[in-house]
Design goal:
This protein is of the alpha/beta class. It has helices at about 15-25, 75-100, 105-110, 130-140, 155-164; strands at about 1-5, 10, 35-45, 45-55, 60-70, 115, 145. It has 5 helices and 7 strands. The strands form 2 sheets. A 5-stranded mixed sheet has the order 5-4-3-6-7.
Length: about 160
């Protein structure tokens, strides 16, 4: 079950309709609309994972949906980033499958690129720097654009805040 500050509790199968409404409402602007998916996690007694689907019209706002899941504790940074990336790809694939089934999404699907944000950065002292090439390669091989820190705001800001 996903949640939305705008729509409350919502099934993932309902998200494409909400994205379509947002997309159609924002066609009046000459700004691109993007669908961005990102996941972040925090360790407590379990690993709390938050996957976010954000829909943004540059300069004109956005909406987002998020799902919270819990898993057995993941301590290894590499494993954690792989699980986060896999979850983002799962959400993306689920949305794409829904949108490809119905022609009403056709224009939106073509005009709204889907990107994945990963919570990894190039900091020299960071633990995630060496993982970036394989994670970006994995996402691009699946057909999605990809961003890492400092440009991966859906994972490193929205999902991060919700995971704490």
């Amino acid at each position: 079950m996903f949640k939305s500050p705008t729509y409350g509790n919502i099934e993932i199968s309902q998200i494409p309709d909400k994205i379509l409404m947002f997309y159609n409402d924002h066609l009046k602007y000459a700004s691109p609309t993007q669908i961005i998916i990102g996941t972040d996690s925090q360790n407590f007694d379990q690993t709390k994972m938050v996957s976010v689907v954000a829909v943004i019209c540059e300069g004109h706002g956005g909406i987002f949906f998020y799902e919270v899941t819990r898993q057995p504790l993941i301590r290894d940074v590499r494993t954690k980033l792989h699980v986060e990336t896999n979850d983002s790809l799962r959400v993306a694939e689920t949305l794409v499958e829904s949108m490809e089934k119905d022609r009403k999404y056709e224009d939106m699907y073509r005009g709204c690129p889907i990107a994945i944000h990963i919570d990894a950065g190039n900091s020299r002292k960071g633990k995630t720097r060496e993982l970036i090439p394989e994670l970006v390669g994995w996402i691009k091989a699946c057909g999605y654009d990809c961003s890492v820190k400092p440009d991966s705001f859906v994972a490193s800001t929205i999902a991060d805040r919700l995971s704490k």
